Amino acid sequence: MRKSNTNMNTSTLRIDVITIFPRVFHPVLNESILKRAQMKGRVSLFVHDLRDFSPDKHRKVDDRPFGGGPGMIMRPEPIFNAIEYIKSDIQDNTASVKSKKRSRIILLSPKGHLLNQDIGKRLAGYRHLIIICGHYEGVDERVRRHLVDEEISIGDYILTGGELPAMVVIDCIVRLIPGVLGEKKSLHFESFEGNLLEYPQYTRPARYRNMRVPSVLLSGDHKKIEEWRQKQAIKITRQRRPDLLRMPGR
After folding, report:
1. 42: Cα separation from own chain's centroid
2. HSE-up of 240 (CA within 13 Å, CB side)?
3. What is the pLDDT of residue 136?
4. DSSP secondary structure letter of residue 183
5. Residue 234 domain-assigned?
6. 3-class SS at 167?
7. Domain boundary at 174, 206, 227, which?
């Protein structure tokens, strides 16, 4: 294990991931927008192997559930040890209430709140996030009750582990950090902004295999284009996600 010697500052979000499969993260976290965000200094990403924190000489991190039942449960000791190690690595000695609110420990779990754009925006405002990737039949309940701040799910289905959800959560959060995306407007017009799905998009050529781009988009009349896009966004949302139109703010 190697400390990162990284001091958090107000312009950088630090995200630590705790997992039993650290190598799966490298191809995703070091490409595209996530790579550029790190190069810009907007985010620092660290991946930790949970087995490094196991008190067991065989680096075991799971055991059979008390009371019987199928599968294995992730033991509490490695997770608590990993969190304590990460917090000691931050070297942030401020102890004010305001500072404590800038850190969040997240467990990825089917029991969690469903990830959405609003959750992504909220988490993008923190200075430090620790993401725990669940596995097997789940984690010891003492981790949930005494360590985790919130649980997040990416959908009503079961995956092998929390690694893929962690990548989804990180991608969702990082692109919402100010300065990560090149143009501010690109966020404003995305799906789920304002509880609407995004309007249809077209590019060149204007005519392809007798399929034409709507003439309003070629008109140069920005007011009409904006009105068309708004109507299309409402239409698509009503057809595919009417629940969004019933949410507060609509």
Report:
1. 15
2. 13
3. 84
4. -
5. yes
6. helix
7. 174
Reported as a single tens digit per residue, the pLDDT across 133-189 is 998 889 999 999 999 999 999 999 999 999 999 999 999 999 999 999 875 555 555
**Ordered strands of the 43-49 beta sheet:** 43-49, 13-19, 128-133, 103-114, 150-153
Q: What's the predicted TM-score (pTM) here?
A: 0.84
Is the separation of the CB atoms in 78 and 136 below 8 Å?
no
Name the residue range of residue 200's domain.
Answer: 189-245
**CA 174 – CA 36 distance, rounded (Å):** 10
Asked whether 131 and 106 are in contact (CB, 8 A), the reply is yes
Q: Report pLDDT digits (tens) over 41-50.
A: 999 999 999 9
DSSP letters, 30-82, are TSHHHHHHHHTTSEEEEEEEGGGG-SSTT---EEPPTT--SS-EE-HHHHHHH
Which residues 6+ apart lie within 8 Å of 78 measured at CB?
50, 51, 53, 54, 55, 61
In a domain, 8, yes or no: no
